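Data availability excerpt. The first of two example chains:
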Amino acid sequence: MRRITPLIVAAFLAIAPATAVQASAGPCKPGSGPHLRGKDFTDGAPLPADLRCADLTKAKLDEVDLTQKDLTGAILRDASLKEADLSQVHVEYADLRGADLSDADLGQLRAKQADFRGAVLIDAEAGQAEFPHADLTEAVLTRIVLTQADLTDADLKDADLRGAELGQVKARTADFTRARLRDATFDQAELQYAVFKDADLEKAQFTQANLQGADLRGAGVKDATFVQADDLNLTGTRGSAEDVPDDAILPTDAGNPLTGVLAGSGQGPSTPVVLIVLSALGLGATLMIWGAAHRHRRRSSAEYAIARRAAEEDVTRFGEEIDALDFEMKISRLSGPSAEWQTALDAYEAAKRSLLIAQTPQELQGAAAAVRHGRQALEAARRSVSDVHRQG
């Protein structure tokens, strides 16, 4: 779920710190800035002061100091930024597909909705970097350090994160489908409703991670550790995990503990074996009613998890729709109709609050109602912006 609500431009400029104000001032159309395709800056050649929406396709920026630069909306496709310093750099909405950022310093990078598809970030340092809603599909992030980074709703399908450090990462609703995460660490990570379907989690560590609603179906968890992990559901996983909490939901094919006891040695069962079997059957009968109730609670919990994930995704999509219109207005130097725009923002906040307090599928309806109301207001704001475009 999104952590930062987009604000109207005037309010944002009034309260943001200087660096953020600079990053949002004078919105531009991606690629409309300086044309620097294929340029080589490794020999100390000066960079333009304004790099917003610059075209730096295939540019060479290895070891270049870009600290605190504003590259919002820039095109950096296939650019080489090996060992470059991008700490506190703004690359919101930027296109970094295929870029090489190996060994780069990405500390506190601002990469909201940036496109990193197929990018290479091997051994990069990205502590406290922000990648909410970013696309990192098939990116190579081997041994990257993402401690305390924000990967909320990021797309990491088929990404290579072997040996990555993701301690205390915020990755709510992030998608790690088919990602390679062998030896990765997620200690104290926030992974609520994240997706790990068919991912390789062999020897990964999830110490004290919050896995509420996380989908691990098809994931390989051989030798993965889950010390004190919260709300772990191993349904449909492959392999045998270690240090699994007592309250975790285990795969259904765990096997029958009596299998092999009755196999014997080809002779009739001995008296001790018969007594053991009878005792087990008696215990099973005693626990039958409890087991039925427990399964019912588990089914109810699973149904709620599915419903909540759907609600989270709907609220997230609504937030992205708000972001898209907000960005369009900034590019066009427009201010949206205040009433409809504020109504949409208020509805988004109401939906988030509803999700926060919801405990049952029925209570999730409040979030759905807020989203419906907000989308109506957002559509009205979008029509007004379109009318201004046509008049212009």
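And the second chain:
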Amino acid sequence: MTTLAPTSTRTPGAPAATRTASGVVSSLRRIGSLVRAESLLLVRNRTALFNGVLLAPAMVAFLHFSGAFGAFVGDDAGASTIGAFALTSLICFALMFVVYYNLASAYVARREELVLKRLRTGQCSDGEILAGAATPAVVTMLGQLVLGGAAIALWIGLDAPANVLLLLVAVLAGAFVFTALAAASTAFTRTVETAQLSTLPVMALALLLSGTTLPLTMLPERVQVLAELTPLHPVAELLTIGLTGLGPDGVAVGFGETFALAAAPLAVLAGWCVLGAWLATRYMRWEPRR
């Protein structure tokens, strides 16, 4: 006797789509809970709060009053060009102090308190844990971008951005890279106190070779080529192109041409996104060494 297989009347793909949507909502809820907890800890930690909110703007203000910005871009540069360089410097400092250093310290602190270990035994994935801790720092950096941009426009002078898309890519991709590097830095950071020393080489090299704290023309040509491959340099390049729309010869280009100028730094930054993700996955330490 022949047996006929039962025919399903369910719509193909509908249950899977529902499960996917439900999973995304649940993931966002878990990340939201972690963000609230991390934000509360950030507010209570005065040192981290100072590093995250005031340190980068204070350094930019110091460089402006010392005349360093004019020396970098040229004394004959217009106010808008100097303002664009000031905002670029602010974002680069924020990526270093607000995102990289603060997150490296936060990840190590949560690890030593066994918070990360407990979270991993629950429903949170590794990515959700890292994202939950990083979100307050990234939001703080974005706040500095908005408020700092407004202050610089009134204080120094700043024209409308030439390419907002490049600005967003530079800021968000830069935040991703240095969040990943902060996670990877936990491999050689034993305590919160030693984070000041363990993160210093990365911060010093990234800032010095970014073009915001030292004119790269002062360096040998080979070092200049290597500087273009460091993680913060393409961020600074994209910010400069997005804010000013100026080519290497100082001549303004159109909106479409800014993408051609940004091709090389975009490729370098994309490479660092991939490398940073691999380093974080490979070297992030979730439990303290005993």
